[in-house]
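Practice problem 4.
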């Protein structure tokens, strides 16, 4: 079963046999201009909203909000940003936080829409704090297979083990497997030369053996290399045939959306190339 998210714009599904879902990573405060940080300190979220609008206009499906910082009031800001995105854009939202109060407030702000919590690890303390919130609000979750046994696993077996810890903990709270989107873990290939192949095999195991939807944060792929976004895009395209269903991406990556649409067409998850053709027509109108 695919993972279902809801929003004013309609339902969005993440899973096997479906088009790749692209999530805007630019609403992460650590990556932004210091001026935006200063605005957020004054509770002004308009510039972040503009970034979300720009990503949506470029063809991305949803946004990931990460504003954790010791000098920012996450409990006040996270629901404010989520509420504004719901009102002005209407796309699904990923809440990149482990602050229980901030998550609760943001999930309440977008209710009755179903959001994505990014993320819950396999660590017992994290599971015990986040899973009750997810259950209460009916949220889906990104499962990050980093845990108490293997730490950050460098093998497929270790990642599958920690993923199973998350799945079993969710079952204990009555959270369905289809509400978990499991992260295959994207590390920098410049530091870990074999990491790409391990991640590909992990994605396949998650999809075929564990039967969960999958996700990657692509931004680490090209770290330390010239023209990093080229490496990031190559990593993303290479991962889709191995079972990648969704990705957190930089919308400013040249050729990102059209290349992913093309791969979805080739993989027959965009049957008849309708999304690809519609995107091509939208470009011609600009």
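Answer key:
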């Amino acid at each position: 079963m695919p993972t279902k998210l809801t929003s004013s714009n309609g339902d969005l599904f993440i899973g096997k046999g479906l088009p790749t879902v692209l999530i805007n990573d630019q609403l992460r405060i650590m990556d932004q201009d210091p001026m935006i940080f200063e605005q957020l300190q004054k509770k002004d979220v308009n510039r972040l909203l503009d970034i979300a609008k720009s990503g949506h206009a470029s063809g991305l499906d949803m946004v990931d909000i990460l504003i954790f910082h010791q000098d920012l009031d996450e409990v006040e800001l996270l629901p404010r940003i989520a509420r504004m995105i719901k009102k002005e854009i209407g796309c699904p939202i990923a809440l990149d936080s482990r602050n229980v109060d901030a998550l609760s407030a943001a999930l309440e702000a977008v209710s009755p829409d179903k959001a994505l919590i990014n993320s819950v690890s396999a660590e017992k303390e994290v599971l015990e704090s986040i899973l009750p919130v997810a259950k209460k609000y009916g949220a889906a979750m990104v499962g990050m297979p980093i845990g108490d046994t293997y730490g950050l696993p460098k093998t497929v077996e270790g990642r599958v083990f920690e993923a199973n810890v998350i799945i079993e903990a969710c079952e204990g709270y009555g959270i369905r497997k289809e509400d978990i989107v499991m992260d295959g873990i994207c590390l920098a290939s410049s530091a870990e030369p074999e990491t790409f192949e391990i991640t590909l095999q992990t994605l396949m195991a998650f999809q075929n053996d564990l039967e969960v939807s999958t996700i990657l944060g692509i931004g680490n792929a090209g770290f330390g290399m010239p023209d990093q976004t080229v490496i990031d895009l190559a990593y993303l395209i290479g991962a889709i045939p191995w079972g990648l269903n969704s990705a957190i991406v930089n919308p400013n990556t040249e050729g990102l959306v059209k290349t992913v649409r093309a791969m979805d067409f080739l993989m027959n998850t965009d049957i008849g190339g309708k999304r690809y053709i519609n995107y091509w027509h939208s470009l011609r109108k600009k």
